[in-house]
Amino acid sequence: MSNLTRHLFVALSNNNFLNRSAQKWGFRFGAEQFVAGTNVETVLKSVKRLNDKGMSATVDNLGEFVTERHISLEAKERIIHLIKEIDRQSLDCHLSIKLTQLGLDIDKSFCFENVNEIASVAQAHNVFINIDTEDYAHLEETIDILEQLLQTYDNVGTVIQAYLYRAEEIMDRLQNTRLRIVKGAYNEDESIAYQDKADIDANFIHLIKKRLKGHAFTSIATHDHHVINEVKQFVHDEEIDLNSFEFQMLYGFRTDMQKQLAKDGYHFCTYIPFGEDWYGYFMRRLAERPQNLNLIIKDKFYTKDDKLKKCPIIATSLIAASALYFVCKKRK
Fold first, then answer.
1. Of 6, 105, 178, 180, which one is the catalytic site residue?
2. Helix, strand or coil for residue 294?
3. Which domain CATH number covers 228?
4. pLDDT digits (tens, 9 = 90+) for 26-40
């Protein structure tokens, strides 16, 4: 059942019609709980609040699979503006970027020019840039561009997706590079990725432990308290330097645990997305953890004392039902 739910939300995330419509609807599905607004000023206020609580942040200017040059160029300029503001405001923050937003599906050379300019500005302002890995179809080009950048810059890194069979091979290939380790949030074929949650979890733990015995900084991105507790025990037993890694969680998820980890002395970083193009990101967060839907329903439909709100439940339900019907129809 969990796999079916996951596939459904991933399918919704990839639907162009629903994506365009969501930008018109605004944050009516509860996305404001997980997306820090639509502009630079708003997201940096969120970063400042986290910094004041002893937590760092990584900011993601939402958008991917762009096919028009002007949109990629606008995204590049917004990211450069972010870098300069992070430095100007002395914030503890780095950036997460997606190459398909910066033109990878348009032209690889065009994409490289954009990301190279970003890396150059970031290095001048002492800001780290993390290149998010996306679906498997873009993996090789992403690693290739990263390795080109690493010949010039030391402020760039990427993400290892534990559900891929090749995850360990890629991690070893980048053993001296700062990395974030995640489980993975795209639908990939069984020929290239683990399908069973237990297999993904096991490989995730294996990669984390192997990486922590190395020397490069590692971000461990998970909301799973079982994984977190196992890592904490491993770090204690192996006497791992706490300065060699950080825990990472998404903005709006398990906020009490985020604060507690920072309070306990672990480096902690919150992944903060912002922007108009929030729909695909939001749906993949539900795909990763369908239980998050419970949080949204409770927040949108119930008061703090568990009484039903007087809100347009029927209208919202019809929107959700229409979305599901549309996807099912397209699949047929």
1. 180
2. helix
3. 3.20.20.220
4. 555 556 778 888 899
Is residue 282 a part of any domain in this protein?
A: no
pTM score = 0.82
Does residue 286 belong to any structural domain of this protein? no
Q: Which position among 132, 178, 285, 289 bears the catalytic label?
A: 132
Same-domain check for residues 194 and 61: yes
pLDDT above 80 for 57? yes
141 and 168 Cβ atoms separated by less than 8 Å: no
Catalytic residue flag (residue 180): yes
Per the prediction, the chain carries an average pLDDT of 85
pLDDT digits (tens, 9 = 90+) for 217-268: 999 999 999 999 999 999 999 999 999 999 999 998 889 999 999 999 999 9
Task: Give the count of domains, the chain.
Answer: 2
* Sequence-separated (6 or more) residues with CB below 8 Å from residue 118: 76, 79, 80, 83, 95, 97, 102, 129
Outline where 105-224 has alpha helix (H).
108-124, 139-150, 167-173, 197-212
* Banded pLDDT at 317 (limits 50, 70, 90): very low
Which structural domain range is residue 24 located in?
Answer: 1-30+295-332
